[in-house]
Design a protein that fits this description.
Number of helices of chain A: 2
Structural class of chain A: alpha+beta
Strand content of chain A: 25-35%
Radius of gyration of chain A: 16 Å
Order of helices and strands of chain A: EEHHEE
Oligomer: homohexamer
Largest sheet of chain A: 4 strands, antiparallel
Chain lengths: 132, 132, 132, 132, 132, 132
């Protein structure tokens, strides 16, 4: 199995509902350093998993919809806690939509899996992994 | 599949038995930067894999039983080489005991796997991965 | 010259005033990974720059006054942009107050300088350096 | 499952064929920081996955065949794009040949899998994973 | 003293003249992860050292003149070894030219120093530091 | 001013005398990731600060005198706490002795300063800086 990973980041504000979150129930924020990993069992004719330039652009586009925002005000997350885990799934699912729409090129149709990891600090991170 | 990882560290002395270890047969030591990864297929009602505060506390408690010690003197490791691999398994198994004892909360009962990685330097690390 | 550095982090929300900030004028947030460096020309009788346990506690205390908050609502920053640079100075100045109050121990009176670095992402950070 | 990873690096020149590569069609170069991960379900009698000293030596030997070279001139890669993905597979396959030749010791016969990750920058890396 | 640092990278081919360089006399390459640090004693009216967006853009522009090239063919380096040290100075000097040309904005006129660090691997880097 | 830094590591056991050290008064250990920085105002005729190959070898030699040992048993440290700060000075001073003995080559005579940083964990490190 082959994989390629690209890294970018976003900077958001949010708050959480639920006693389990303690002081994180207050409005606060996070930088998420985001790693998007694309997987496939074989390489394409160019010897790559995916066009890394396009992968980088599409990850930037997905994060561009979230960064520099207060996620508490985003309709897409109404009624949801925007935990690191939930945001990892959101970024992964939106990348999959773009792959399926052809935004990563025809070669990206050979992808079989994706993992998105969000680093919220130097001591904590979360991942979401799914098939395509 | 979702995962959450928290990082902490411990600083121990030890020595190894066996020619394969070369100069590491002498009493020496290590800082282990420890990553504990908790996995489950779905999120709980709060949108999380595990209460990250409790996960951090329990990892600290497990490492607190090992850090600032000479592991050659610990009865738990009598007759064992406390290699990075063996210590990764020890930390993972002790975390599982705490999960099963309810120390990470009732939500942690949904966990299906755990991976513990010990970084012994900037150029070497070892992991142990198990199901729950 | 000797120095010791300890690392911790904080997670805050804020917004900026001024066209130079572009989209960061919107309410957003950041994780700041914070490095506090303590300097002195000679070591004390124990062979240290500062009690690293106390340095860690005091850095945590200073960051505890800021983390999990919306800095736009904090009176201490009224009329100020809480840029990474400004926050680095704030953390440094508050650590100096604690050093002068004796919170880092009598040995800390030998300190001659401090540098605080705030990492706002994997590609940007800011520092403030001052004498004691 | 247990794993051990060792890190080293190589510094090579190369160019790519194919419009997808854009400016990387020109002769350029890369530092690849290389992580080689060795896996097995159980530890050997010494409590290890593999002799980490030998693993380090063999990784260095494999990278020594590639580093400080222009890969466009290497017969082994004639007609191939030496992408990060292709080089990850090359390093992994060459390590497997050495394992099978006994270069990592008899204990290495218990290995069941290997993953090689090549970091081409702080924001991009690729992996190849295979069974033994 | 305040500073702000931004990070980017370039990927180049080159070779060195001189026995001291050993195998690096052959055509090879490197990824340089580049940190550009801008310094000034006081903040501007916006509470910043420099417009970080412009600093990022200008660093990218400077690296864009070098990346994806064989530096042995660049007239700017004729007769020079493009060592990590020499390239750090080149990047710093070109950033200073852009600061003096106003490309980082009028606020950048308050800058008093710059440091450029090029990381050539996980175990080696070089810096050049100069006044403005 | 130019500088070049090389990184290596050592793994030692030790204990400390003094109440300030708390649990670190017990025999324990550490991995120190060691960065040695060499400085000079101008480059030599090859365009370098120092022969990086020799610098790496000499750092390895200095660390080879310390690694895989219990520093409590080393005569060189009798009556001294081998704190991170003290060890940073020891490594720096031993590197300077080697520079003065010509072990880094005649070009190294142009060096004017050295800094040694020892990382004891992902959240703590110490440095010693001196002139030559």
């Amino acid at each position: 199995m082959f994989s390629v990973t690209v890294r970018d980041h976003m900077m958001i504000a949010h708050s959480f509902q639920g006693e389990v979150f303690g002081p994180a129930q207050r409005l606060h924020g996070a930088t998420f350093v985001v790693d998007a990993t694309f997987r496939r069992p074989d390489l394409d004719d160019d010897g790559i998993v995916v066009d890394i330039g396009r992968a980088t652009e599409q990850l930037r586009a997905v994060l561009g919809e979230l960064t520099y925002r207060n996620l508490d005000d985003e309709p897409a997350f109404a009624g949801l806690n925007t935990t690191t885990e939930v945001l990892a799934r959101t970024v992964a699912d939106r990348l999959v939509q773009r792959i399926e729409a052809g935004d990563l090129g025809v070669g990206a149709r050979g992808l079989t899996g994706i993992t998105v990891t969000l680093h919220e600090s130097h001591i904590a991170w979360a991942s979401y992994d799914r098939a395509l």
